[in-house]
Structures are given as C-alpha cells and as structure tokens.
Specification:
This protein has 314 residues and is α+β, with helices and mostly antiparallel strands. The chain is built from 8 helices and 14 strands.
Length: 314
C-alpha cells in the first residue's frame, strides 16, 4: 500500500507562512528603501526578517506550487514498508531529495547537528509553464507575470532564523530548531527551454530551479510534512493581498486551535503595515478579516480592547 499525498489543493510550508512578510507596491510600499527589517511585537528578535526586495502574496503562491510539486513527487513512490525512518524522511535512494540534508539530535545531550549536502544535480527541478497553468490559481495569469514571479522570488534575499522540524527519538516528539539564514534567497532559476512562434512570441517556457541552502531547508521541512493545505475549493488566491497574508501568518499555520487571540500591535507589526495612523491600520485588518469571513475561510472574528479574536472553521 502506497502513501499518497497527491491532491489538487496546494501545499503551504508553515515556517515561511509564520515568518515572511508581504512588502509590495500593492500594499502602499512603493517608496521604501531596501533592505527592510520587520520585527513582530514579541519579546525576542528571533522572528525579525530582513528582506532585500518586494515580496507579494503571489510570491507565496509560487512557493505553494513548488512545494506541492516537490512533495507529491517525493511521496508518490513511497511504500508503507519504508516508513520506519528518522525525521519522517523515507530512505529512498531513487528520490532526488533524499539524504541531502541531515539533522540529528544527540540522545544523551540533546545537541543539534545539522549537515547540508551540496549536490548541484539533486538540488534542481524543472517546471514547465504548461504544467504550471494546470493549477487553478495560475490558469489566467499572463506568461510575463509567471516569469516575473520566478524572477522576483529568486531575487529576494532574507536574513532570519528559520524553524526546521526535527524528530527527537528520545522524547518521540518533533523539536523545532532555529537555523540562521544570512542574506540568502530560496532558489536561483533560469529559462531552460522554450518555443518561438512565427510571430516571435515565446511559448512553452521551462524553468530550471536550483535550490540554495535556504531552499534545501525549505524542502527538508516539506519532507517532514511541515505544511498545511490551501483548499482549491475556495478562491483564496483571488482575495486582497492583506487578507491572504493575514490568513497565512495568523490562521493557516495555527494547528489545534479554533479560537485565536492576538494584540492589534502584533498583527500590525507582523503584517508590515506601515501607515502611521493606527486607525487606518486597524481598518485594513478589519477589511481583511471580513473578506476571509465572507469567503467562508474563517468562521468569525471580533475586536475588543486592542485584542483580535479569530474563530477558525472546524
């Protein structure tokens, strides 16, 4: 019996949803100077993120697609008999993503050892425009926009501490390890193949992606099933950007909780809202939450004494 994870819904990696911020022209960030650092309103600076370029909801959408393809490719041929493994990573020598990152915990001292293996061939995938367009969220996006997404996603570099999932055999639970990322992008890409029509139009593009160290940690988390599903039954990707970002950062990756509470200052800072007027920032959050509620993505929300309470759909 095979372990099947293949679905029409897209996979979204939890760590990036919790950490990355939307900084885009559509949200009024036209005149900011890069690099920009956004620090959520927590007691630790662990969650601050420095970015070197614009990052929009559509960049997230591309990562969701890449994660979906990689994860479903990885798990398609895995047998139930192969499921006795550390870190929920199958030992499958035919799979290009196996054994490229090794994270171990010493059972005596709980010390963490991280080994990253650099293998050019096995850090690459090729994505065709034809297959990309088969997914519901890409089928009406212009060709130039798709290539622009690859360009901007690869161009943006981050400085942050990235949570990586490790299964601790000693306590039989997952442990979250924070690994420093210093000015790294997630992947590099090139246009590896395409057709040219008689009129000179370029079609059937193929994109070759080479994952960086940061990107391989992203893949590692996906192999550890550190993701959530974004349903294809809901037009999530058609929502305004702030609504999408708020859902990713404060709802989607909060498993096991149906009632979520956040300070307004936490959401304002975490979303990177830069209006000097708190009233205008609260208005933007309220509109985003109403959009999520009206789309049946959340059940309801309320705002009392500077506290937002968000009720998830069960």
């Amino acid at each position: 019996m095979k372990k099947e994870l293949i679905k029409k819904d897209l996979i979204s990696e939890r760590g990036l949803n919790r950490l990355l911020h939307g900084v885009s022209k559509q949200r009024g960030h036209r005149n900011i100077e890069f690099p920009i650092t956004i620090s959520p309103n927590f007691n630790t600076k662990r969650y601050s993120v420095t970015m070197t370029y614009f990052w929009s909801a559509r960049n997230f959408m591309l990562l969701d697609y890449i994660g979906h393809i990689v994860t479903n490719t990885f798990y398609r041929d895995i047998m139930e008999t192969d499921r006795e493994y550390d870190n929920y990573i199958p030992i499958n020598p035919n799979n290009p993503y196996t054994n490229k990152i090794e994270i171990m915990i010493d059972n005596q001292t709980d010390d963490i050892d991280v080994k990253l293996f650099d293998d050019n061939k096995n850090s690459e995938i090729i994505l065709s425009e034809k297959n990309i367009r088969k997914f519901y969220c890409f089928n009406k996006i212009p060709t130039k926009t798709i290539e622009s997404l690859f360009e901007t996603t690869s161009y943006c570099k981050f400085t942050l501490t990235y949570p990586v999932r490790v299964f601790n055999k000693k306590i039989r639970k997952y442990t979250e390890v924070y690994i420093p990322i210093i000015n790294e992008n997630l992947f590099d890409y090139e246009l590896s193949n395409y057709n040219v029509t008689p009129t000179g139009r370029i079609t059937n593009k193929q994109y070759k992606i080479k994952f960086t160290r940061f990107g391989r940690l992203f893949l590692y988390n996906l192999k550890c099933i550190n993701f959530d599903w974004i349903s294809s039954k809901i037009d999530f990707y058609k929502l305004p950007e702030t609504a999408q970002l708020l859902y990713r950062k404060y709802v989607l990756c909060r498993n096991g909780f149906n009632d979520l509470k956040f300070r307004d200052s936490t959401i304002i800072s975490g979303l990177g809202l830069m209006n000097l007027s708190k009233t205008e920032n609260i208005k933007a959050i309220n509109i985003a939450l109403d959009k999520l509620k009206n789309s049946n993505i959340i059940l309801d929300w309320k705002y009392t004494n500077d506290i937002y309470e968000i009720f998830k759909n069960k």
